[in-house]
Hints:
CATH architecture: Up-down Bundle
Distance between the termini: 18 Å
Radius of gyration: 21 Å
Mean pLDDT: 86
Low-confidence stretches: 1-14
Number of helices: 21
Shape: globular
Strand content: under 5%
Number of domains: 1
Largest sheet: none
Amino acid sequence: MTTATGVSGAAERSTTAHVVWASALGTAIEWYDFLIYGTAAALVFNKLFFPSFDPFVGTLAAFSTYAVGFVARPIGGAIIGHYGDRLGRKKMLVATMIAMGLGTFLIGCLPTYSQIGVWAPIFLVMLRFIQGIGLGGEWSGAVVMVVEHAGNRRGFYGSLVQIGFPVGVAASTGIFGLMTKLPEAEFLSWGWRVPFLISILLVGVGFIVRLKLAETPHFKEVVERKEVLAQPVLEVLRRDWRSFLLAIGITVSEVGLAYLLTVFTVVYATTKLGLPRQVILDAVVCAAVVEFATLPLAGWLSDIFGRKALYLAGGVFSVALAFPLFWFLDTREPALITLALVVTMTLTHAMLFGPKAAFMPELFRTQVRYSGASLGANVAAALSGGFSPLIAAALLAWAGSYWPVSLYIVGLSVITLIATLMAPETARDSLRS
């Protein structure tokens, strides 16, 4: 196939399969880097960086630093999206890999509160901010790179990039599960650092793979036509504001569910229910592994039935399962807890997250696609993702029960359902240029 630039797909030396593989691998590494912080916040940061607090207050403080990464994500999305629409998708994907890897590795090197006092949580917040900046441009750049190479199977190929999330969940939770088998003193001394330190090796692999990617044909066409915009972020806010607001609404439920199911459930099970850490960590890993299959299935179905059909189904299931999820957790039975997380992740998060990789970029034209997808996804992440574990933990402390957390899930889901109904169907249209 020859693009408008006159450059054949073969000459680009980057087939769709290679682009998908490189993007998915890099995204998995970036999600691993970002998500190990959440697990550490739930299990260890309250003890090592906020030890003067009551244990539950320490957990809230740790989750507050966790939320800092999400506050940084729109900033990173705006900065990296701006240059992604001006300089190209590939350059920014390499830059995000460096930012995330450096921030994560340095967290593993941090002295604790007992060693340097208040500077420990201050440095922790600073490095979490750097992580957020990196992830702010990572996901959107990866999916834009794939979608602009994928032709008419954007839903399926885009959803393969989404597998990076469950890979990151399974890897980050799994390695923490292994570390928690250490004696408590050793785990708190050095075991918790291992997941952060080994990320530098993973980032090195992802960096090399991404250097070999070719720029997308759509961006090359914009460059050849001399239609690169000077201020793509401002253009999104001026001319594409409706797509921007729809992108936020479409995303708030999915991103909130992602962190409630993988982070807050760990806190709920270990503090409220008194379960061993390994029980809930194993359940989260199982749910993430199942998503390896359900995410691409959801993306494939969205190519057939449309993005909106999958989003509406996922939103309805999110409302329906908001209370049963906690009914099953409260049984304290490992098998039922695992079943609850597997079913909930499959019918809610997977059905929303799978088609999202195509749906979000499709809302925007090529000149502002990176910026629009970055801003929409990351503003939603800041609003509901980073603060969801903190809000849920505060609601649990206030009510002494899960019911307000379930209502919170219902509220997020209703917003997504309304935004989906207002959004255009994009599955069968060509990418906007």
